[in-house]
Design goal:
about 5% strand, Transposase, elongated, two-stranded antiparallel sheet, Homeodomain-like_sf, 2 domains, HTH_Tnp, about 140 residues, mainly alpha
């Protein structure tokens, strides 16, 4: 997403281009075919700005640095996932999240349960002692 904020007129101009799927105030969605073609042309040595201009995209609207940013992102996607990376929605799929736990043996489950019981018993003993100390402090006052 660029820092540009596009006007209604600019959005309509951008959407006239067949390489642009949609445009909003803050973003432009390019077609997967355009992305593939752009990456291939870039690898042949063409400049990002030239690629965009050749496809009829107005750099005055999108910004002079936007082609560079887009090509960096698209090249990364292309290197990781190939052409298929442009055709599938991947947002949110890269997150590893919390790792899933492996199935544990019965002995391992028992050992963990016993350790938890010991911890909770120690915690209860501590709280009992703390309550007793608080009661004694109140009696002295």
């Amino acid at each position: 997403m660029s820092k540009n904020i596009y006007t209604e007129f600019q959005i309509k101009e951008l959407e006239k281009n067949p390489n642009i799927i949609s445009a909003s105030e803050r973003s432009i969605s390019y077609s997967p075919e355009f992305k593939k073609k752009s990456v291939k042309e870039y690898k042949k040595g063409k400049a990002p700005s030239q690629i965009f201009m050749d496809q009829g995209i107005n750099l005055e609207i999108v910004g002079k640095k936007q082609p560079i940013r887009c090509l960096q992102r698209w090249r990364s996607t292309f290197e990781r996932f190939g052409e298929e990376g442009f055709l599938t929605e991947r947002r949110g799929k890269g997150s590893t999240g919390r790792p899933t736990s492996k199935p544990q043996s019965v002995e391992e489950q028992l050992r963990k349960a016993e350790a938890r019981i010991k911890f909770l018993e120690a915690e209860n003993d501590f709280l009992k002692k703390l309550e007793e100390l608080e009661r004694q402090a109140l009696k002295k006052k």
